[in-house]
Amino acid sequence: MKHTFYSLLPLFLLLDLVIPFLLAPTYPGYRHTRQVMSVLGNRSAPFHTVYTLWLLLLGTAILLASTQLCPLLRSRSGGLSLALAAILIIYALGGCILSGLFPVSETKAMETLSAKIHGFGSVFGFLALTFAPLVVALFYFKGRQTGLALCALACFLLALVFFVLFVMADKPRFAHTVIAWEGLWPRLTLLFMYLPLALLCVRGAQ
Q: Rg for the chain (alpha carbons), in Å?
């Protein structure tokens, strides 16, 4: 059962990046580089229910992940274990479950209560998960696994850069620059936040 879990979590993380590409063709006018993934869950999207259910499923899977990955870190540091648990719980609840239950509108405008809850939950969830690679890097540094530690640290720095770009994307001064690609940055942020977690799963399965 343990090995099944460690095999499935990376698959869930991969699917979170792939599913928007599968749903986008059903939504006329949707642009991956310009629109965030959450737009696929707004009530105007043809398959918004599918995306909503996916976010709920992903959030549940990540909550379960915290019960498996955190004991793995506890073998070297109780503090790192608690930090990762907090990060995963905040992301699962804010970035996945609340975002699924309270869909955003077609734009980033937070005009409704649902959109406001979605926006705040998503921001806090993303902000928390940005530090997951750093926790993983410290775990590997403690185990003197320098190569894996540097890989996780690089993921942390890249995730931080792309998160900052995402925050800057809707600022008027960047409207006609590549920084305005607010659909691209969260995808890249997630990619580099997820990679170190997948690394932990590989270690746990050994």
A: 17
Best CA proximity match to 23, nearest among 44, 5, 1, 7: 44
94 close to 121: Cβ distance less than 8 angstroms? yes
CA 177 – CA 173 distance, rounded (Å): 9
What span, in angstroms and rounded, lies between the C-alpha atoms of 137 and 175? 35
* Tokens of residue 199, six digits: 């690394």
pTM metric for this prediction? 0.90
Q: What is the mean pLDDT of each run of 10 residues along the chain (206 residues)?
A: 64 93 89 86 85 93 84 84 93 91 70 78 91 94 91 96 91 86 92 93 65
What is the rounded CA–CA span in Å between residue 115 and residue 41?
Answer: 11
- Under 8 Å between Cβ of 133 and 153: yes
